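Subgroup meeting minutes
Present: P.N., E.W., G.H.
Scribe: E.W.

1. P.N. recapped why we're keeping a running log of single-chain structure predictions: easier to compare across weeks, and new members can see raw inputs and outputs side by side.
2. G.H. added today's entry (311 aa).
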Amino acid sequence: MPCPLRGTASYGRGMEDDSVVIEQFRAAVDRRLADLLPDGAARPARLAEAARYAVLSPGKRFRPMLTLLTARAFGAGPLAALDAACAFEMVHAASLILDDLPSMDDAALRRGRATTHREFGEATAILAAVGLLNQAFGVISGDERLPDAARAGLLHRLSDSVGFEGLVSGQALDLNDRDHVRTADDIDLLNHRKTGVLMVAAAEAGALIAGAPAASVAAVGEFARRLGLAFQIQDDLIDAAFIADTGKDLGKDLGKDAGMTTLVTVLGPQEAAAAVSAHLAAAQAALARAGADGLLARYAFGLFEARKAAA
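Output recorded in log:
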């Protein structure tokens, strides 16, 4: 299914200059994360080491990039959203630690290396995840560059994205209903809570920090919601392809969805791929409404295309 963004006026424009900005932002996130995490002097050292192992492992930093690029799109300075962006990466890393546990998905590989619990033990991994979640809230609440109202809005969104209508709920739905037949609406809810909620919060955070109008914040949130749904369906398509071709290595455990109801099993691969394209088109339209369809759009959709091609 061709990407609906190919051939549009903005897609692919200025990619040489874009890459410089993207790499500068990604490097800034990595440096700031290293500063915000407990260092070698922390005690117990092994807990600090586990947290750093989980957060600083090689990754795209997609969620913090959403925050930084959205803030940039609405005129914020380059450092205004940096700490908030790092907080979202900490939450994402914590969620991966927990998702990978033997009591959850029982994964052995993440981002091309051993999962945190395989490297440090289950107890230390769980404590590292709890510490990272706590640290994320502390980073935002302690960011004195942000106005009080912006900090309150960010903390509210972060709390919602983690809690009983967010990542926690999504993982519970995934674990507890695996043997039930799911409708397409059920799967959309699961996919949103497992993947989309943190993307929505990260993108809306950038708009809030930049002082964007409420309508633009909402439109950016819709962009991220649609993008999250597309990402999760694409993951299911990749996983289904892996089951048919076990020669692929994407740096994480695959084939975990065998026997589960996903949009691919409900609709079939062709219609699932069409759903991905529909979500991407809706995401692009939402960004256009927000007035943020420049570098943010080129980064998000370009990364999606690269991710699909690599699979």
